Amino acid sequence: MSWGFLRDLLSGVNKYSTRIGKIWVAVVFVFRLLVYIVAAENIWKYEHDEFECNSRQPGCENVCFDHFFPVSHIRLWALQLIMVSTPSLLVVFHVAYRENREKHHNQKLYKSPGKIDGGLLCTYLISLILKTGFEIVFLVLFYKLYNGFKVPRLVKCDMRPCPNTVDCYISKPTEKMIFLYFLAAVSCLCIVLNLSELSYLIFKHSIKCYLKRYIKKRQ
Question: Where are the transmembrane segments (predicted)?
């Protein structure tokens, strides 16, 4: 696939984000998207071909590989990248809706279509909740599927059609494990950023509403 679409999406969202949101976009673009394209994709490129078992029984190696790697690390990482970026489309669509509404009525309906207030604030908060949820779900998936982000050098397989328990060797286990830890660390950082932005927006909106009520009471 072309990662240019994801880059353009993140760049578009950056226009309407808060400062914390801009940091999140930078982290996703530099520490996830670029790392994926430049380094990680090459490490797992030939993972099936480099998976070796000490048995020549037809089908044994394929069955063992499928058992220990039900989903490829790199494909799951790519899916995570797409899923955590997709909720940002909600914000882009909402801003586009505002702009289209102004054109349709041929008048200024909003101070700024990209200003985070009213309905756009709700959309933005929903997108943050969805992104945080996806991050947590994928962290749990990685942890469950790969035994706590560990990549062993040797695995023992007794699945059919293997004639007995065979030894299978995983290529570049240390390098893969380092990238998995890096992935987990960046995911945790993104969760912290999303929760911080969510708290900031809710706090800011609460203060704004409180001040409005206070001013009305004073008047």
Answer: 21-39, 77-97, 118-143, 178-203
What whole-number distance in Å separates Cα of residue 79 and Cα of residue 155?
Answer: 26
Q: Residue 157 pairs with which residues in a beta bridge?
A: 166
The answer to whether the beta carbons of residues 141 and 149 sit under 8 Å apart is no
Tokens 């990482």 correspond to: 77
In this structure, are residues 158 and 164 in contact, taking their beta carbons and an 8 Å threshold? yes
Q: pTM for the complete prediction?
A: 0.83
- Burial zone of 159 (CB within 10 Å; 0-12 exposed, 13-18 middle, 19+ buried): middle
Q: Which domains, from first to last, does the chain contain?
A: 3-217 (1.20.1440.80)
Q: Is the dihedral of CA 66, 68, 69, 71 positive or negative?
A: positive
Backbone angles phi, psi at 154, to 5 degrees: -130, 135
- Each residue of 12-35: pLDDT tens digit? 666 777 888 888 888 888 888 888
DSSP, collapsed to helix, strand or coil, labels residue 62 as: helix
